[in-house]
Amino acid sequence: MNTKYFLALGALTLVAQAAFAQGTTQAILAKPPKDSWPSYHGDYTGQRHSALTQITPQNVKNLTLAWAYQSGANAQIKASPLLVDGVIYFSTPDNVYAVDARNGRQIWHYTYPANKGFHIGSRGVSMYGDWLYFMTPDSYLICLNAKDGTVRWKVQVADAAKGYWTTMSPLIIRNHVLVGVSGDFDNLTGFVRSVDPENGKTQWKWDSTPPAGTPNTTTGGMTWMTGTYDPETDTVFWGTGNPTPVLNGASRPGNNPDTCSIVALDPNTGTKKWAFQASPHDTHDWDAVEIPVLANMEFGGRQRKLLMQASRNGYFFVLDRETGEGLVSKPFGPVNWSLGVDKKGQPIPNPAKDPASDGRLIAPDEGGLTNYRSPSFDPKTGLFLVSARPSYGIYFNKPADGAFGWAGADYGVWSKGEIQAIDYKTGNAKWVHDLGGNGSGAGILTTESGLAFTGDGQGNVMALRTSDGKTLWHAMQGQSMQSSPITYELDGRQYLITSGGGVMFAWALPED
Amino acid sequence: MNLLPSISRLCTGVLITGALAFAQAPKPAATSATPAKTYPPELVTAGETTFVQHCAFCHGRDTAGGEAGPDLTRSKLVADDIDGNQLGPIVRNGKDAMPKFTVSDQELMGLTAFIHTRKAIAESQKGGRRGVDVADLQTGDLEKGKTYFNGAGKCASCHSPTGDLAGVANRNQGLRLFQRLMNPRSTKVKMTVTAGNQTLTGIKAYQDEFTVALRDSEGRYHSWPTSKVKFTVEDPAQAHVDLLSKYTDDDIHNVIKYLMSLK
User: Fold this and answer.
1) How many CB atoms lie within 10 A of CB B64?
2) Which sign, positive or negative, has the C-alpha torsion A205, A211, A216, A218?
3) How sure is the predictor about B152, in pLDDT bands with cuts at 50, 70 and 90?
4) Which helix (H) or strand (E) holds B53?
5) What pLDDT, on the 0 to 100 scale, is given for residue B15?
6) What's the CA angle centered on A140, arms A136 and A144, to 5 degrees?
7) Is A359–B99 a contact, with Cβ atoms under 8 angstroms apart?
8) Contact between A367 and B68 (Cβ < 8 Å)
């Protein structure tokens, strides 16, 4: 055999490896190829913005159903699916599904044993190599074989008997599987735990609040959404939830540091680099776990590494993510609980708007001006698209409510849904698309061709033009979308994935 | 309609006094000595498991309210419920912000048993109760409330204390009155649709960005694509919603105090 032949054989092997790649790698997670959506946000930035351009504002009116997958389960799909090597992986509480991304056929289905955890939602699985990572309602992390859904190992992340539960899709960075927890109904410490992907052993744990019972401190600060990551500075950005007791702030004086905050962590050690508190001394359940979206953009005449969050408390924040410095802090809807912002850009709560025995009228309500559903940032237009929910609620707290867990009562009185396109430089909305009654449960995906995909609260899935919010396509799915859309390209065809109830839908342009 | 006839057969054993279990029900039986049911412990335990999985996040692990969901121990619907005849349709069809759940008859029996048991326990507690009592909502100034009603609030342009609101405090109390003041959530919203040269008026049945629908005076359902018709919606509750951004907390407490005097 001559050298030429060897070279040709080598090239063939390389091609074969690329075409039949196995699972994810750090390179794929950092720069996903167009035929994959390998992590919760699609990539580490949290922009939920795709480079795909086959579906355009001109042809989107032709979008048609490619397939539908019926899970047959009661649970609504709240997961952002993964797409790796032509297979879609997603979850509902106690269930993981692998589905052929070309035709919607089920490949396997894993069922976790019945348990007493809160089954409020499962936001998706994560993948490293050939292994999937899935969090259970009773706070275990399960490692599954992506080929057949068999269990490789299972470790307890938190004690469900104490009141923790888990719903989030882990964030994977090199050999770290980062997991967070939920638990508002007990006075518990929130944390981010880094787990070894091979054996489930804990590498480090960062606590957002001191242990319960520490005098004059708070508990809470749950970490129930997937963070984002900047490889250039090797920094993780994570949102934390409200302090506990939730509606009674009297027992936890001060700002309650690192609750309702965006924190910057070192993924190797869990060491905190900085924190920005979206809601100091929160008494309204406004988790700041909404996606901390990362982008390198011009700001104030120079290129900066930015972090943007549309927060549940009603503020749109832009930070310098290298320092945590606040650059923009601006309400994006009715907000009546603050006295303005401090010199760091953190809102100052108005004590007169703390919950009281005779009730206080608060905007937004407890569900917030937005919630966990993904926003999307389109770098081309500089628009941050968010599903917003202007709302009012009434909040009560009295001594008999105690100082444990919820410790009060609150009731939403009115809300509506809208999609807002916020100019990241000013925090002002360039356009607002009314969605009518009922806030939408759908996240948003933007694409480089100038489209934004999302849903309303009635069950419609729709495509808007990113530049002006005009509706260009819609379809009624029968139940409102409770997940964030993704897109990928397979065999030269771009697919859009949405969900309604327990059904997953794939949309594409008609085949030639 | 009784969805769960078999519950009666299951319910034997010690009875809790009905005065406790139904203290807040509006019917005459509510304050009578009609005994409340007790339920077999295994049914209550099974119901608790289902409740924790699917209901506790919003309604609290003990049914006394949680994130967004109301306190079921004070719920009129629960007070009126007999063996799931009220709870069943709500669980299976949803209501307002509550999604629907697919549950078996056995699971629904468990849920019913657990909710009623927690209600009895909550009402047997001595001393101040958690949540919102009528007594909590007495901080306002009646005269100022009356002034606001006739003045800045413009309430008198639609309502009258001797007309539609006569005796309102006997029909709605406490939190329920508070919520209705903030937003009465009208179920009969007038909709007028003009399609071509025909105009139809009725009660709004549906509206989103793409479709509107109404029921005509005979109860018949009609729908249209929004792009093909002109339509108007007159929601009497909108005046309440418009006030949300204008109220002070004092305004609200004063108006409630005034409304609570209309007996």
Assistant:
1) 22
2) positive
3) very high
4) helix B41-54
5) 34
6) 75
7) no
8) yes
Please check whether residue A152 is in contact with residue A145, taking contact to mean a CB–CB distance below 8 angstroms.
Answer: yes
- What counts of helices (H) and strands (E) characterise chain A? 2, 39
Task: State how beta strands A106-111 and A95-100 pair.
Answer: antiparallel
CB contact (8 A) between residue B131 and residue A411: no
Chain B hits for A74, CB-CB cut-off 8 Å, are 101-102
Which chain A positions have a beta carbon within 8 Å of B99's beta carbon? Answer: 76
Of B53, B140, B179, the CB nearest to A118: B53
Contacts of A159 (CB under 8 A, 6+ apart): A139
What percent of chain B is modeled with pLDDT above 70?
A: 86
Kindly list the residues from chain A whose CB atom is less than 8 angstroms away from the CB atom of residue B65.
406, 409
A138 CB within 8 Å of a chain B CB: no
Tell me how close the Cα of B68 comes to any Cα of chain A, in angstroms. 6
- Where chain A has pLDDT below 70, the residues are 1-21
Burial of A296 (0-12, 13-18, 19+ CB in 10 A): middle
Integer Cα distance of A508 and A65 in angstroms: 6
CB within 8 Å: B137 and A359 = yes
Q: How many CA atoms lie within 13 A of B145 on its CB side?
A: 20
Compute φ and ψ for A382, nearest 5 degrees: 70, 20
Over range B97-125, report the average pLDDT. 91
**Chain B closest CA to A31's CA: distance in Å?**
37
A174, two tokens: 């090199």
Contact B244/A414, CB-based, under 8 Å?
A: yes
Instruction: State how beta strands A49-50 and A445-447 pair.
Output: parallel
Interface of B with A (CB under 8 A): 49, 52-54, 56-57, 60-61, 65-68, 70-71, 97, 99, 101-102, 127-132, 136-140, 175, 178-179, 182-183, 207-210, 241, 244-245, 247, 249, 252-253
d(CA B139, CA A130): 63
Helix count (H) and strand count (E) of chain B?
Answer: 12, 5
Task: Report ipTM for this prediction.
Answer: 0.92
**Nearest by Cα to B51 from B15, B78, B14:** B78
Q: What is the reported pLDDT for A21?
A: 60
User: Can you tell me which residue has the tokens 């419920």?
Assistant: B81
Q: Are A366 and A217 in contact (CB under 8 A)?
A: no
DSSP string for A182-230: B--SS--B-EEEEE-TTT--EEEEEESSPPTT-TT--EE----S--EEE
Residues 6+ apart with CB under 8 A from B235: B186, B189, B190
User: Is the Cβ–Cβ distance between A311 and A333 less than 8 Å?
Assistant: no
- A414/B52 touch (CB, cutoff 8 Å), yes or no: no
Compare all CA atoms of chain A with the CA of B125 and give the residue at the minimum distance: A400
Calpha distance A296→A307 (Å, rounded): 9
Q: Using an 8 Å CB-CB cutoff, list chain B residues near A476.
A: 210
Answer with the residue of higher pLDDT: B185 or A289.
Answer: A289
In whole angstroms, what is the distance from residue A208 CA to residue A202 CA? 17
| A458-489: pLDDT as tens digits | 999 999 999 999 999 999 999 999 999 999 99
Cα–Cα distance, A124 to A127 (Å, whole number): 10
Nearest to A74 among B102, B175, B241 (CB): B102
Cβ separation B249–A396 shorter than 8 A = no
Total residue count of chain A as it appears in this document? 512
DSSP string, B119-148: HHHHHH--SPPSS--GGGG--S-HHHHHHH
pLDDT, position A20: 60
CB-based contacts of A23-30 (< 8 A; 24+ apart in sequence)? A23/A84, A23/A85, A23/A127, A23/A128, A23/A129, A23/A130, A23/A131, A23/A146, A24/A84, A24/A127, A24/A128, A24/A129, A24/A172, A25/A129, A26/A173, A26/A174, A29/A172, A29/A173, A30/A231
